[in-house]
Amino acid sequence: MKLRKITVAVLGCWLLSGCVGTPDGTSTPLGQLVVAAPQVADERYQLEVAKLNEVLSHGAEELDSEAIGQLLYRRGSLYDALGLNVLARIDFNRALDYQPRLADAYNYLGIQYTQIGQYEYAYEALDAALELEPEHPYAYLNRGVAAYYDARFDLASADLQRYFELDPSDPYRSIWRFLIEVEVELEDATEQLAEARLEHASDKWAWGIVDLYLGAMSEQEFLQSYATQSMASDETLAERMCEVYFYLGKYKQLQGEWDTAAVYFRLALTTNVHMFLEHRYAGIEMDWSQQQALAAAQR
């Protein structure tokens, strides 16, 4: 136990002392980044939307309310994946008119309302999802993220702790818990992240993000080791780089490098990986980083 506490303390000190950097002490140039081509809208999704349009336009009279609700929900999820958010919200709301107990539709609406800053609607939708399905796999995450962007860090912390406990081996759960806790107390958040890494780290690539945040590797080492390495067979470069860009942006925010953070978030948006959480919120993060950069320049 004593050894673990010492290790946690050392890992935490690396971040708190600001010793993270490339071997020559400078930041990694943005020019060294791998730039992924934007992900092209999946043709299969577009074809399925066309088929659903046909069924809903000409065959809906033969279907019961539950079936129509499911079809509208499916089309909404396809619109969401294609980045057509307004059309997605319309379909999710219509799906609930036909099938009011569709927890997944409420979950999607919670995400959508968070993206446009309508937090009360987001809480209402995500509360409904959890009331209908108390063990919903993502509603705690999404409600916690909504609270995070609404600066209600006590609520966000409770939800992300619950989400983390459901699967501590998932590195993203540790990362998001850290990003929320760091708004309250950096030292405690860092120690908590280090403990999670010691107890649950595996060969999942995203644990490299944890090592970056803890100072166990430099930004350059992270890019060389994880930007394009160990990609799954069903993973595209755009998907990997969407995550890499986003979490590098959050890393730069922690260092107070707001201009660079904004660039990373803009790069995350250019990947067009609309389904990824990191793409969904990169716009919010980019705007916030630009505001902070402007405020710093005026001081």
Care to describe what's here?
With 299 residues, the chain is mainly alpha-helical. Among the domains are: 167-229, no CATH class; 231-299. Helices cover 70% and strands 0% of the residues. Helix 8 packs antiparallel against helix 9 (171-181). It is globular.
Features:
about 0% strand; TPR repeat; mainly alpha; about 300 residues; about 70% helix; disordered N terminus; signal; lipoprotein; single chain; TPR-like_helical_dom_sf; 15 helices
What portion of residues is helical?
55-70%
Q: Count the beta strands.
A: 0
Task: Write down the overall geometry.
Answer: globular
Sheet/helix structural class: mainly alpha
N-to-C SSE string, H for helix and E for strand: HHHHHHHHHHHHHHH
Q: Taking all residues together, what is the mean pLDDT?
A: 89
Subunit structure: Homodimer.
Function: May be involved in cell division.
TPR repeats: 103-136
Keywords: Cell membrane, Lipoprotein, Membrane, Palmitate, Repeat, Signal, TPR repeat
In a nutshell, what does this entry contain?
The protein is mainly α and 299 residues long.
